[in-house]
Specification:
mainly alpha; 3 helices; 0% strand; rod-shaped
Length: 136
């Protein structure tokens, strides 16, 4: 795992932990407000236990949701890398076929102002492409 990936993982974890803490604090405050509105000690005790149970359930749900989000984000990152590799491989193959075609018919030169989608590639992989491939 390279340093950029570790950094992304750290940032993702911090963001998710921040969301988790905000949700937990929001639920705590609403629970404390409900508990403060009870008048008798007996009903306060029952309400406090109920609020505590609800809070634990909410925390478990939040933890489960955060775990699910982490899993989805990791899967999306993996798919993104696979797609980028596929696109780079396709670009390499297009360039190889273009060179092969040009070498097999030297009397025909490609048009200079061709507006086709294949003209957006400017000859093979760049240094950035190579570094991305090496990261993965």
């Amino acid at each position: 795992m390279n340093s950029e990936t570790q950094y992304e993982d750290s940032v993702s974890t911090l963001v998710l932990e921040n969301i988790k803490n905000k949700l937990i604090n929001a639920f705590k405050e609403s629970g404390q407000h409900a508990a403060a509105s009870c008048s008798s000690n007996n009903s306060y005790s029952l309400v406090a236990k109920d609020i505590q149970a609800n809070e634990e359930l909410r925390r478990a749900k939040i933890d489960g949701a955060i775990t699910w989000l982490r899993t989805e984000l990791l899967e999306m990152r993996s798919q993104d890398r696979q797609l980028a590799k596929t696109l780079l491989d396709l670009n390499t193959e297009i360039q190889r076929l273009r060179r092969e075609h040009e070498s097999s018919s030297p009397d025909k030169k490609p048009k200079a102002n061709n507006n086709g989608p294949e003209t957006s590639f400017h000859g093979g992989e760049t240094d950035e492409d190579q570094s991305f491939i090496q990261m993965n």
